[in-house]
Amino acid sequence: MSHEREKRQSWDWDSPQCRAQLDEVFFRQHDYIQTGRTEHKEFWTFFERFQRFKTKKEMSAPKSSRQESHEGKSKKKSGSVDLGLPKDYDARYRINISVCSKDIEERLGGSEHRRRRETSGPGRQEITDCRLALLHFLDFNQKQSFNKLSKLRREQKSLPIFQYRDRIVELVRTHPVVVVAGDTGCGKSTQVPQYLMASGIDHIACTQPRRIACISLAKRVSFESLNQHGSKVGYQIRFETSRTTSTKLLFMTEGLLLRQIQQDASLGQYQVLIVDEVHERHLHCDFLLGVLRSLLPLRTDLRLVLMSATINIKLFSSYFNDAPVLQVPGRLFPIQVIYQPIPPEEQASRSEKLDPRPYLRVLQGIDQRYPPEERGDLLLFLSGVAEISTIQEACQTYATHTQRWIVLPLHSTLSLAQQDKVFDIAPPGVRKCIISTNIAETSVTIDGVRFVVDSGKVKEMSFDPKAKMQRLQEFWISRASSEQRKGRAGRTGPGVCYRLYSESDYDAFASYPVPEIHRVALDSLILQMMSMGLGDPRTFSFIDPPPASSIQTAVTYLREQGALDEHGELTSIGRLLAQLPVDVVIGKMLVLGSVFKLVEPVLTVAAALSVQSPFLRSAQHNPDCSTARQPLNSNQGDPFTLMNTFNAWVQVKADRGSGSRKWCRRRGLEEQRLYEMVNLRRQFKELLRSHGLLEDDMGRRTEPQDRARRRERLTERQKLHRLKRDHELQENTKRKVLRLEEGLEGDASSGSDGEGASSSKKRKDGAEQTVDIQEVKFKLRHNVNELQEAASADLSSRQQSLLKLVLCRGLYPQLAMPDEHNANRKDSEQVFHTRNKQGVVIHPTSVFASDPEVLHVPEHESSEFGADKGQSNRHQLLAFVTLLETNKPYVSNCVRIPALQALLLVANSVDTNADCSRVVVDGWLELGLTDGDTALKVISSALTLRGEWERLLQAQLRQGGPGSSAGLGLSGPKVSRRELEKLCEGLVRFLLYTEVSYSLRRLTGLQSQNLYIGPQQDPDLSSASVLSSLFPGMKAEPDPIKGGLRVCSYFTYNCLCDSKDLYSECLRTFWSCPHCDLYMPLTPLERMQHEVTCRPPEEQQPEEEPESVNASSSSSSALTRLYHCDICNKDLTLTSTEILKHKRQHLS
Amino acid sequence: MDFTEGSALGVFTCELCELSSPYSFYGQKPPNTRAIVLLEECYGMKDPFSPEREKFLVLGSKCCLCSKTVCVGTDCSLFYTKRFCLPCVRDHLHQFPEQVQNEVLRKKSVQKMSAS
Ligand SMILES: [Zn+2]
Ligand SMILES: [Zn+2]
């Protein structure tokens, strides 16, 4: 006894040594809980609490008296079956777990037990105490987890859709198509897939309009089906997939399912397709429905479930042969609607800023009517970002004054951290005032909203086919949207909706929003339809067919892009583009870039142009950010700035890892966009590889054989995987509480969108401590060294100009011409013109907005007066990615290109007069070249280069094209490196060193109407035959519309109304060839012909090109003349070139 | 023994509250737990809420008196050296120690209050 006591006194529960001794008993290497793990730490924390609890209890309730009373009671009432329960209550009896620890094992084994007791170590009491605590700990954990499960099941059961569970499964079993209609909160998106899975269906695809929803739904459903680490539920989106062979339910975007249909028209891999949110009427969704409708008769076993809000349900049902509709009531609390139309004096006119008074009155009203203890936040819907910042400013002033509001903006151009703030919680007595675009109408759901203010306005994108321009315009919303906005107030309790319009306005609203298919450009859709072989898009049975004119516009555009030929059939590049899940222009860049071995830079640019700009708008006004960004800017154009930024970021990632976050912050960059870029870039690379457009050796560089290094890499990856898993587990942890100054900070820095540097700085400390999960994912996904290598190679000026050409051809016909008076205008007033839209301006985010001089023709190089007026060889054009009209028509993501050279190399229609001194491109740009000689030379070399470019491109596409044994690089006639290098060399020389002065102007409407001479009754056949021999493989024919001679698909000679036409024969002048000793009077055409066939000796290929030789010798050229050779003493009929060849023959 | 998903033996359903979930083991020995023994034959699964991968979660077992399958939720059953469903506990309430009696009575009154 005394021995025990002594020990006990020396025993210290807080001592790490003492604990370690117990660890050896309970938490051994193979035990349920192991020393060092999180649970082990949690145990000891629990232990301390448990001990405290025990002492407190012992002190407050003397055990003996209690026991007595209990025994008395139980004795009195006995009589029935004896359960044999212990008389003395012990909490231990409540636990159904026992633990076989080391001491028990030893006792059972009976071995060293006794000897051990002698040595110092935990005594029996300590072991007992610890065991008891452990049992309680295990029991506590069981209870916690079980409560979570039970809560989850309760929540599932309480969803309105739950009672329709069997009905839904039954309907799906018995009908090919079922429509499930239910409003937000009824649980359809999470539950219906689970019901179907539980009913034994193993191959389900569920489409969503938004990528983010795919991920969050997959996570949620996976969690609800208690399958967190399993893979039955997965998602697949553009960048990533969690799909495995055991995946039963797959969430994916509508676009992705369409891609799968392109691969496998019958979608054999799925039993059930769920198309969610069909009421949103996205372009892809409407199209998908059409495709599925025609698929159903071919796959009678396929089941289709359409899920929709309770909007326009009949439309969907009747489109699918009156499919049964299951309507589920939503779970909305009552919402009071208050109409508060804005009085006329407070209504903003078009040019003015929004008047904040009507909005402030609502805030005041809430403060007066509702005590601050009654929680509930405010959600305010405005049409756009500018409106949001106006109202935000005013509300912030009010909030600072009252200390009762935290004002937070919400729109898609905010940084993700800023967007995320709306989910944080306001401190007690304070409400959040979230000012949002319609993003919060369906995409983002914020709980705890009690008040909604609806401006009734929305800004929507539409496409103007005439101006070939996107337009962002403000509209009244539809009644459906209006109801949707209202509903946001009643998700967690009864709410109030303030409508800042009158009830009669509401009644006049359209019932539903205009479906996307009626608003947007249909290029990609039509391209995809063509490649899927769906026939004439005009007769396809859409749920709501787009106007025929939209389809026609798209077809024309695709033809201009080179994706369709003149008969409306897919070209080989078009076929490839249809396979790439990117914009046509981006796809073209990728393909063209890969041909020129410009893969790495083109991948970067294509990825950069496909994601939102990483440059935060608000940082523009921050001088520190601008200075830090300066080295990244390229005055070649925005794509180059983006590329520099990406490359610099990759360097930072390689050198400093997670330091990149700080690096981005300093430059006002949203790092998330760069992560998106790097992911997309990788996906593009895989696409090119799978289409055989990329040699394989680039990516599969053999890893270092060094074992130690490999192991190191493996350990690092394991560590990263663990970090990622830990992060995923933490993700569901509680939201943090906002501080009252939260709204203020963002605003103070820049006065714009509220994502300034100062707020970031303050948030920094907290953020830096947590794991940068993006960094972890980045490292898992990418080989940093490989990226660094690709990013560090500086482009030579040669590569740069080639890259510009690739971008230009990709973007063509999206070209803009600087106004001729720009040099005399202020920087902010620079004006540009596209073919279809005059007076566009450069978006303020573009490098050319701050540095427009690089686009001006240097004054000293352009003569101001006389015939030479405007002549220069420095004219430039802009190729741009987007033309979007908001308050002004803006072009953004521009690159500058040398006008003449680029136009001759990419334009679809190049027309000239007889001496080629006047060139009209695409019917709107006129180039005037005074020097006829050079003009000819330039056009002739452009034609040659283009012909060669096209030939190599086609060869490359044939070689790689879809379905070929791509990637091996051995199949088909390989494009030789030499040919390619020669072409590159030629193009670069043409782009950089073409010395020709010319004028550049736009044609007026009248001029472009009377451009052509039109078909001639008596075409000049002699020149036709000249031309046919000029370019082997091209047939020069009289052009039936323009007149003149159509030399090839894009070049028509001598078709322009021009006084010189009639005298073309008189234009014969003496000319000496620089390469041979030919000297004779020639017409411009004849001269061109000679130039094409007579190449400088060093350029002539050693290998014979039999085709061209045959072509020129067999053609009865008008240029042949009688030649007497003194050496062979013969009279020969030869062209001048042939004469030359003949002479050379004798020399060798 | 593998008790990741996919190896579910069947679906456990509580006969009182209808809570249901697939179970992946039945018995006194959860898989991958060297030192742990359960004091009753339990239905259990991999703990879906635990950050550690190899944790188990007991869903329920059979009442030792009426043999009903019941979940471990406090509204359906309690463990006092053996598993009892709450209806059986109420039938034999006097045989349980005072602490348990109070607990059950308190639950009853709470339920009544929330129901009314
Ligand atoms: Zn139960
Ligand atoms: Zn029972």
What does this structure look like?
The complex is a heterodimer of chains A (1148) and B (116). Chain A is of the alpha/beta class and 1148 residues long. Among the domains of chain A are: 2-67 and 88-144, no CATH class; 159-328, Rossmann fold; 335-514, Rossmann fold; 907-1067, no CATH class. Helix content of chain A is 45%, strand content 14%. Chain A is built from 42 helices and 32 strands. A 7-stranded parallel β-sheet of chain A has the order 4-5-3-6-7-2-8, sandwiched between helices. In chain A, strands 14, 15, 17, 18, 19, 20 and 21 form a 7-stranded mixed β-sheet that branches. Chain A has a 7-stranded mixed β-sheet with strand order 25-24-23-22-28-27-26, covered by helices on one side. In chain A, strand 22 and strand 23 (918-921) form a beta hairpin. The model of chain A is unreliable at 65-78, 112-118, 698-703, 746-769, 961-972 and 1101-1118 (pLDDT under 50). With 116 residues, chain B is of the alpha+beta class. Chain B has one domain. Chain B is built from 2 helices and 9 strands. In chain B, the strands form 3 sheets. In chain B, strands 3-5-6-7 form a 4-stranded antiparallel β-sheet, with no helix packed on it. In chain B, strands 1-2 form a two-stranded antiparallel sheet. In chain B, a hairpin with a 6-residue loop joins strand 1 and strand 2 (20-23). The radius of gyration of chain B is 16 Å and the shape is elongated. The interface between A and B is large, with 54 and 47 residues. Strand 1 (97-99) of chain A pairs antiparallel with strand 4 (36-38) of chain B, so a sheet runs across the interface. The complex binds zinc ion (ZN) (2 copies). One zinc ion binds next to strand 7 of chain B.
